[in-house]
Specification:
2 copies of one chain form a homodimer.
Chain A lengths: L4 E5 L3 H12 L3 E5 L3 H11 L10 E4 L6 H8 L8 E3 L5 H9 L7 E2 L1 E3 L20 E4 L6 H13 L3 E4 L2 H24 L6 H4 L4 H7 L6 H10 L1 H19 L5 H15 L14 E8 L4 H11 L6 E5 L6 E8 L1 H13 L3 E2 L4
Parallel strand pairs in A: 1-2, 1-3, 3-4, 4-5, 7-8
Antiparallel strand pairs in A: 6-7, 9-11, 9-12, 10-11
Amino acid sequence: MTLSHVRIIGSGLIGTSIGLALRAKGVEVSMADISPEAEKLAQDLMGPLPVASDCDVIVIASPISTISSVIKSELGSSLKPRFIDISSVKVNPQLQVLSTGVEKSDFLPSHPMAGREVGGAESARADLFQARPWIIDSREVSPELLQIGIELIEICGATVIDMPVDEHDKAVALISHLPQIMSSALASTLEGAPAQWLDLAGGGLRDTTRIAASSPTLWREIIAANSQALVPLLSRVIENLQDLASSLNSQSAIEEFIQSGNRGRSMIPGKHGGVARNYTYLPVVIEDKPGQLAALFDECAAAQVNVEDLAIEHSPEQFTGLITLALSQSDATKLYQHLIAAGWSAHSPR
Amino acid sequence: MTLSHVRIIGSGLIGTSIGLALRAKGVEVSMADISPEAEKLAQDLMGPLPVASDCDVIVIASPISTISSVIKSELGSSLKPRFIDISSVKVNPQLQVLSTGVEKSDFLPSHPMAGREVGGAESARADLFQARPWIIDSREVSPELLQIGIELIEICGATVIDMPVDEHDKAVALISHLPQIMSSALASTLEGAPAQWLDLAGGGLRDTTRIAASSPTLWREIIAANSQALVPLLSRVIENLQDLASSLNSQSAIEEFIQSGNRGRSMIPGKHGGVARNYTYLPVVIEDKPGQLAALFDECAAAQVNVEDLAIEHSPEQFTGLITLALSQSDATKLYQHLIAAGWSAHSPR
């Protein structure tokens, strides 16, 4: 089977991006949204659409709280209605779908892990899902729908990962929803602090609070829908903090607390899904003006090294920047020698 | 007065870096460390030293727990012993110093805010403090010692900020110690999680747990010494998390929780100590191979734009990278048009 027509309900970031990816491969796409303006924008982005034949599948890309009502209103839109959702949480939508009478065989729960800090059709892009994980739960899904779902995901360029819905929800509670909550809780303690204190903020505070800038309307739905998986994690982290608070007079208890964090952090894999790599870090001080980064990366190219990651750091009233490049140990040594020879203010890799 | 001889006790990262900065400006430096190997390494880095005259000031750069014993053993090392410390916490060291009988006029509490993820003399560098904030508490300090301290800080290239010790401790508890604790608490919940879950980790988890890799021996001292300022912050954050845990059925309560984090995050200033800038973000997809970043920054230079910050993102099994450049709005528009014209896979700035 090859996809010929996909109907997408919800023309936000994810729905529109799926539409763009499908259209780029010649698949017919029809879109609907409760907002006529949003629907129009998405249709404009999609280009002129042919008169629709019956659709192969209906993608539910609307907010979690709307899923059952969308299903009900879409049951008549196809001779053989089959559904895929794209929510960040999976147990709750499945319950909503089953409550409408739709069978498990006709609903493929899915979650493309391609979040952005911005939403809306205007932020959509056909390559949003390129090489990102896209989780499905294939259990009890009809072979036809499963094939349609996998084809759709592959057209979007994503990697299929099969995982039961309840395991999915526990996994994202841990790796996505709890980090959001911890970052927001930390950032909210900054409210009301003197500006002079915040002027002293370094990279640690910036990193830990970056995702605290996320959308409240998106996250209220995600957190509420995944509360069951979040409750034990929140209890654990609260207990952990309470234990620390009552052990502040014990250096060994504090040390064990920090060590436990070391161990957890080391479990996060490096890029390409491999095991965590111990990068070597190479600090370079540059002038904060146009062209300096380009010149630095010219040197990286000349030295034929691969930069795995990098950080830019500025201080209050500072007009130089500290660039920390992450490389393999051998590349770091090679680049360091290259930069020193070329007169750069590079410091020993570590 | 001009500094002629500074005695430094403790040849770790900070002590040795101060020594290197002073030597670079021709100031005589003598160093001592309880570890003969560490002392020897620091002396080697410092180069041959002339026979020492009486020192102008003694810099205590040893662990917080050793400060009073260092003071006692150093009282006889100078005709007029005057002290500066460099600890990350300020009330506790001051109490230790006063307990030895040293007057407030002869002790300048100070804190160079130039942490690193690595320690030891081997990581030291003369420019470690360049353009970083260096906090002092000048109250009741003799004019001579204050002048010596300011000269030392300026030789190191840092910016003097005068702040009472108790205010300092509250400020760093909020902007440095609490973020460390939250990051460690979050990372420690990852212990024991299935590897398949962690393979799904995105930038959010990586950012929020980056500082969880910090040194347990360094942080046990800092957190224990600043427990007084940390207790109310920990209580506040625990209460905040408990409130959320008991409101997971209320979308409006969750929304307010995330909004409060938005407000706190927006208080962190951008670079140069100015008010927070709303950067415009420009996503660019590049191939993950040597030379691509260089080529991208060549384009930035050609377009004459200033990159304020950037992030590199990889996914599991992904062999392309998403570079997100942060620029001013006008620079983002200019660069976007430039990159598109040059055939890059750039996406609309947002």
